[in-house]
Amino acid sequence: MKIATILGSLNKNGSCAHALNIIHDEFRKSGDIEIITIVPNGFTLPFPGQSLTNSDEDKLQKLISEADGIIITTPEYHGTFSSIVKLIIENLGYPSVLSGKAVSLLGVAGGSIGAIKSLEHLRSVCSHIGAIVLPGPVSIPNVHSVFDTEGNCLDKKVEKRLRTFAVELVTYTEKHICPEHALEEQVREKS
Ligand SMILES: Cc1cc2nc3c(=O)[nH]c(=O)nc-3n(C[C@H](O)[C@H](O)[C@H](O)COP(=O)(O)O)c2cc1C
Fold first, then answer.
1. Measured in angstroms, how far is the CA atom of residue 24 from the centroid of ligand 1?
2. Which ligand 1 atom lies nearest to the CA of residue 73?
3. Is CATH 1.10.3720.10 correct for 2-190?
């Protein structure tokens, strides 16, 4: 099984990255999972309408196409999800390669209300382009007191929730996405 994780921040050592580290650790424990890490700093992505000779749009689309499940993380910025997440989505094609994919959402926020608004907005956009957005997104409020500067999680409940969140995507993908692929391969082999 291949799971792609999208870091929705340009801060490679920020809160989204810290939360993703725990999720990656849980995937490694689960065994047979290939993790495709998408860190936006490593991609040159055009804005819609802009043409770049060195664009990584195709590379990004290929990585997401190969994934059985996807986690999108975002910080809450001004009451919504980050512009880098929007730029990534805009580079996933129209129609989008996210269509039909199982997608789980994780938001972090500096404030006490959490990333509720970002997650609602992001869910709406992902659903609009045909992704299967799993219920139970994770919102981490007051995130600067949840992780220390080394990225250690200081809140056991948050860590537990992140690990469960990772397992939930794996379970869903195993039950509903991977059998579909197997069935399709069988049908193709026969024809
Ligand atoms: C431009 C900007 C806007 C922000 N807007 C909000 C906000 O609306 N609500 C909130 O709770 N936190 C807000 N924050 C705090 C971020 O959510 C928080 O710093 C988060 O840890 C950033 O994630 P990162 O470390 O992965 O980049 C904002 C931070 C920045 C830099």
1. 22
2. 26
3. no
